[in-house]
Amino acid sequence: QVQLVESGGGSVQSGGSLRLSCTASGGTFGDFRLAWFRQAPGKEREGVSCISRSGENAYALDVKGRFTISRDNAKSTLYLQMNNLKPEDTAMYYCAAFSPKVAFSGWCLIRRYFDYWGQGTQVTVSS
After folding, report:
1. Coil, helix or strand for 72?
2. N or C: which terminal CB in the chain sees fewer CB atoms within 10 Å?
């Protein structure tokens, strides 16, 4: 029912910028809690940033100050602006979403809460 499609990945040099997009179809976008996760080869999928239905957001320590998450409910789209990219940011980036029946805390970057996932978009940062 709900599908998420990421775009905007690519290859950049250290210090470069990219903006990732994730467009949702199905469901009610305004009801979604959203997040970006990433996974590098041989590594577990890790949380990058999350954003609530009200726009409250949080970031992993490694990206705080460099990445900005945002959402446009009218366009059913989630964004991740990535600035000052580092080689350590190289990974497949995934958007994820779920629609909570009841509000609760502590969900931000916990994978098991997210029901819907995109196919991923590759980000490669060279030094």
Report:
1. strand
2. N
Output the CA torsion sign for 97, 100, 103, 107: negative
The two tokens of residue 105 are 């805390």
Report strand pairing: 10-13 vs 121-126: parallel
103 by DSSP, 3-state: which? Answer: coil
Q: How many Å from the N-terminal Cα to the C-terminal Cα in the chain?
A: 40
Beta partners for 71?
Answer: 78
Contact 84, 11 (CB under 8 A): no
pLDDT digits (tens, 9 = 90+) for 51-102: 999 999 999 999 999 999 999 999 999 999 999 999 999 999 999 999 998 9
Let me know: does 50 contact 109? Beta carbons within 8 Å.
yes
Closest CA to 31 of 108, 102, 126: 102
21-53: per-residue pLDDT in tens?
999 999 999 999 999 999 999 999 999 999 999
